[in-house]
Amino acid sequence: MPFRYQVLMTSRNAVLVILTMWLLAFLIGLVPLMGWHKTPPDSGYCFFVLVVDMTYMVYFNFFACVLTPLVIMFLIYAQIFVTVKRQVRRIASEQRGRGEGQMKAAASMRREMKTATSLFLVLFLFTICWIPLHIINCFLLLCPHCPVPFELLLTAIILSHANSAVNPFLYAYTMTAFRDTFKAIFLCCRAVGDREASNVASGDDREC
């Protein structure tokens, strides 16, 4: 069931999942170093498109490591939203006899729905930012003689990297817990800076 997240995802399980994802990403990034790459050019300059094999980028990186997980995750979110819609209809039909327990269940479901929607937006933004570059890579591999404007390639690369820069703002905008944490971090840093400035000013006054 989509709403068993809090039961299944304990702190220990969350740490294990994060470590596993980092390990997988590290191993995937090492694949070209293990031999799946082009022969370095004689010029001595190491450019990405001249060294990395596009078969790795398209078949392994895109189809296996990006597209397949994306399809699975979109299907999971579709199941979540269908389940929520079904639960909303059920609660609406029982609204007249709703007790305190049902009210708590409804509030919990609304929180779960809000979290699921926020995470779906993160997934959707990831898709928008990364798919253009992967499509260009497919063209470079499957149609090597097709012209790809350099400006278009550069825009797709910048867009893919911009995803990581935008995510913190999206988290802060859509999730209260992230927003409160960011406020606590920045306010703490600001307080430390104010104390340091105050100490410097006090030292200058003593020297005078």
From TrEMBL:
The chain crosses the membrane at residues 14-36, 56-82, 119-142, 154-173. It is found in: Cell membrane. It comes from the Eukaryota. InterPro entries: Adenosn_rcpt, GPCR_Rhodpsn, GPCR_Rhodpsn_7TM. The keyword Membrane applies. Keywords: Cell membrane, Disulfide bond, G-protein coupled receptor, Glycoprotein, Membrane, Receptor, Transducer, Transmembrane, Transmembrane helix. Residues 1-171 form the G-protein coupled receptors family 1 profile domain. Its main location: membrane. GO terms for cellular component: plasma membrane. It is a multi-pass membrane protein. SUPFAM superfamilies: Family A G protein-coupled receptor-like. GO terms for molecular function: G protein-coupled adenosine receptor activity. Belongs to the G-protein coupled receptor 1 family. This is Adenosine receptor B1a. It comes from Sparus aurata (Gilthead sea bream).
